[in-house]
Amino acid sequence: MKKQLYTEIEISASPKIIWDILTNFADFPNWNPFVRKIKGELKIGEKLEVFIQPKGGKGMTFKPVLLAVEKERELRWRGKLLISGLFDGEHFFKIEPLGENRVKFIHGENFQGLLVGVMAKSLDTNTLGGFKEMNEALKNLAEKSL
């Protein structure tokens, strides 16, 4: 089974500002209401340690592998629950310039695996809500940086 979560938000900031905030993992606990902590090196193939906690939900740590690190454009990783094929997710952040100091920030995840159907309701509420909260927090922080 497959499922995609997709969000986007326009932000009045440069791609550089968005990228700098998004890749400053040490600062995540100070501003990010969904992805509370990330540890690891920004290199393709590296394994990160990511702790997420949707509002009102239980926190979860997972160790995805970085698939894309394209400065000021894209950050993408793939994680799994226990073994591949059970519940896999490819998380993505994309930064698309719209003009001077204006970007479209795209944030989503492609899920697949045996447990996706069982998890669908939680993904549509808790996880999607967490993505949107993170987007708003990123927008607020980035627009204050101008």
Topology summary:
Elements: E1 2-11, H1 15-22, H2 28-31, E2 35-39, E3 49-52, E4 60-62, E5 65-70, E6 74-80, E7 88-99, E8 102-112, H3 116-144
Antiparallel strand pairs: 1-8, 2-3, 3-4, 5-6, 6-7, 7-8
Describe this structure in words.
The relative contact order is 0.27. This protein has a five-stranded antiparallel β-sheet, covered by helices on one side. Strands 2-3-4 form a three-stranded antiparallel β-sheet. It is built from three helices and eight strands. It has a single domain, classed as 2-Layer Sandwich (Alpha-D-Glucose-1,6-Bisphosphate, Chain A, domain 4). 28% of the residues lie in helices and 40% in strands. The radius of gyration is 15 Å and the shape is globular.
How is this structure best summarized?
This protein is α+β, with helices and mostly antiparallel strands.
